[in-house]
Amino acid sequence: MTTSASSIGIVAPQRAHFDTPLSLKSGGVLPAYDLVYETYGTLNATASNAVLVCHALSGSHHVAGVHADNPKSVGWWDNLVGPGKPLDTDKFFVIGVNNLGGCYGSTGPMSIEPASGKPWGSRFPFVTVEDWVDSQARLADLLGIQQFAAVLGGSLGGMQALDWTLRYADRVRHGMVIAAAPKLSAENIAFNEVARQAILSDPTFHGGDYYEYGVVPVSGLRLARMLGHITYLSDDAMAEKFGRRLRHGEHQFGRGVDFEIESYLHYQGDKFAGFFDANTYLLTTKALDYFDPAYAYDGNLQAALARAKAKFFIASFTTDWRFSPARSQELVFPLMHNGLDVTYAELDSAAGHDSFLLDDPHYHAAMRAYFNNIEV
């Protein structure tokens, strides 16, 4: 396999086991658990150059590079992370972690529950952003990292980055919150609920214990992904990429797929259902819904953010209607009123919410400039 000069190249996941029980915000307890993670670059002698990358809903620990057994398995943020890239692994030691409840190797509903010897399935406890951050902090302890140079993420990953600056204020020098919000809007919660109902109403879901039946709730997963994917794109992006183009050049007057946008959504749904776990989808969207740092402060976000000590980089994208620039600005002003150093970038992009994953030159230039100013 040939890789470019700026590619990390072949990477391999690692596994950390934790025997100390983890108490969860829901009241549940994980008696023991595994976290799967990858690292890129070299941790320096003082462990001051570590950067944690938090993933979004369907992301994983595989942030950059490729796996030896699958050269097509390029990390989901490979365009950002690597030698000479905006998050430069010649300078920083980068960590990607698969969150608890995930389906990429960390302990989740697909894992075997020690007490029963069966997959956790419906018995896996609800996990929250706060639980993920607590488990990530334990991994940092294991790796000898007392303070991160930066914690960053996009979308749900950005919420984790924000929570790191609140729960572990002394352990984060820079919080980088991309295409995110301090909490979901009612509209976003509504989209998540419709997606969950698609899964819950699938007859092969079996109450979350479909593993024991040897089936996958494919129909529900497909519909959930199709709905979600619509919210990740902008109207302009869909119009430019698909418009009203017909697959067959004329109307078929049937129940099949007529338009290119329909074909695209079917493709995305089928692809997603082939690798993602339905229970993980349910858990992760609920974690999104529950996240609200101001909840314990009677809705006062400025009071909630007063715990933070980090410097902040916050970025939004003009056509992102799921997490609009106005939602990022909800963070900017309370942080500034708390006397914190905040850099805010509102970037022009036609790609909607997915913009944070793309190789946009202005976006990456802003990220590069910020990382260049982080001292290690």
UniProtKB/TrEMBL annotation:
- The organism's lineage? Bacteria, Pseudomonadati, Pseudomonadota, Betaproteobacteria, Rhodocyclales
InterPro entries in the cross-refs: AB_hydrolase_1, AB_hydrolase_fold, HAT_MetX-like
- Keyword Transferase assigned to the entry: answer is yes
Pathway named in the protein's UniProt entry: Amino-acid biosynthesis; L-methionine biosynthesis via de novo pathway; O-succinyl-L-homoserine from L-homoserine: step 1/1
Gene3D superfamilies in the cross-refs? 1.10.1740.110, alpha/beta hydrolase (3.40.50.1820)
Please state what the protein is called. Homoserine O-succinyltransferase
NCBIfam families in the cross-refs = homoserO_Ac_trn (TIGR01392), PRK00175.1 (NF001209)
Keywords linked to the UniProt accession: Acyltransferase, Amino-acid biosynthesis, Cytoplasm, Methionine biosynthesis, Transferase
Its EC top class is transferase
What does it catalyze?
L-homoserine + succinyl-CoA = O-succinyl-L-homoserine + CoA
